[in-house]
Amino acid sequence: MHCVYCQGVFCYTCGVIWCDLLYCILSIFIDMRNRLYHKSRRMKDGFRAPTSATFRISIFGGVIGLFVILIIVRLFILQVVDMSVYREMAFGAQNLSAQLDAVRGEVFMRSVRDGELSPLILNEDRFLVFADGRRLEDPFSVADRLAAIMKISDEEEVDLKNRMSEIGSDPYEPLFKSISEFEADLIRDADLPGIGFVRQPHRYYPESVSASHLTGFTQLNDDNVRVGQYGLEGYFNRMLSGESGSLSGERDPFGAWIPLSERSIDAAKHGARIITTIDPAIQKFGCDVLIQDMRDFEARSATLIVMNPETGAVLAMCNVPHFDPNHYQNVDDISVFNNASIFTPYEPGSVFKPITMAAALDSDKVEPQTTFFDEGFEVVDDFTIRNAAEKKYGLSTMRDVLVESINTGVIFAARKVGRADFAAYVEKFGFGRVTGLELDSEVTGTIENVYKKGDVFLATASFGQGITTTPMQLIMSYSVLANHGKLLKPTIIHSFEHADGSVESYEPQEIRQVVSSRTASQISSMLTSVIEDGHSTRAGVKGYLIGGKTGTAQIADEEGGYGEEFNHTFIGYGPADDAKFVMLVKFENPNERFAASTAVPTFGKIASFLVEYLELVPDVE
Prior knowledge:
This protein is of the alpha+beta class and 621 residues long. It is 36% helix and 23% strand. The protein has 19 helices and 23 strands.
């Protein structure tokens, strides 16, 4: 079709270029105006031209002009302002792009005996089962078969049948979420019409509750991206996640790839595989003993940590209450997700006394045989501080102070050191700061009282009251005593195996020399006396020198005072002169009065296993 004014091809879409379009519109407007003008001139005398003709022409011209302006503006927006937008739309219609998901890294435990790996966190395929109402022939019959395969309860079967009867022509009705591949295969083998599957990547935690605070878990965020929470999953989320890639290329009108078209591939970078220092045998045995003893002692909570003091490697870690990371959404109280070993500080009590004594020995203020006279109590800033059970020991050595756990004796030692130097030693041992263990949500504890001017603050801090520490900080301080006075950074990592094939191995990291080797040896000797001559004989292992200390500490109430609830702790290591393990056992408010009846025997059971499992050579007959 041709335009009668410009003789150009008239396009009904966007084929006419701007100048032709404007020329046509203006030509129409001018032609109509001329016709009206000549018509009015040909009128006979005596007849008056319509007075509104000129006005109507003006209105019509204004409308046409406005229409022209709008078209010009619209064309400018389409072809200039939004050109990139429409170009992208055209490119998107022609090109297909797909995200290449990275595989999340798996995590393993490692045996200290032979280096054999055991799974801690694995990837596995789970499946969502859905019904397609368009293909479902007999909903009740299919529901019966599914109920039998999945072995669901009668109540769940009734609910399943009700849902399937209401599907109608709905093409997607989820029936079972996150079933195993074995269960999915059983349903496939049944060949049920109208039943389909959606594959779902899933994280599986073989150790379940016993390692829940080590592993953490993953959950989908608002962007449907799997994100690690707590434990190793949270701390190493980025390393485990990797980086997604992409694939792009041209597609045909039906959305399929064009075989010979050019494609662009940005490969996904899969997450790293993490090998931990956790030993599966120590983890299982230790946690089993802890859980059983916690039940027997009717304790509110319990914690176990086992480490190698020579390397800083954590060999086992267990906390109760715990949770199942495979079903983390079923917990009643989300505080159970917190790892008490690093997240829950408490007043340690008498297990802090060896730290005070080490400061006094290292600063040459006392010797193991230095004596003082114990009256059974000490008045400090108008506060009366007594020994446990209000005992009076008379003339006592510093060795006796640890063996008998004499409160007034460590106050004597702390005064010899002085407030400033005592505070410095507390810091050097690592209290008041995070240890740097590679687990999520570590806290620092509070040691403010060691800096305060009142003498009572120094006195109470010397035997572990008025300050708070985490179990991890405590076991690290004992690692110093077990490792010739050296503080090593604790770690739960043996190595990282990256997707490119490179391996990043952990090397022990010495932080500082806290006390001299001589001081550490003196304290170790004194701590063996605690087990051999004191109240902790049940922590001993026949044929081995084991050193350690109990702590029975009152739990502060909400008003800041102390009631009749206690934390029981025992920390020890062996062999005392060349330690290969250091261990902490803690029970919160057990049914016994003193730690010698709870944490001590638990330590003894696990220590007996360790000396055999680690194949340690006996050092005494």
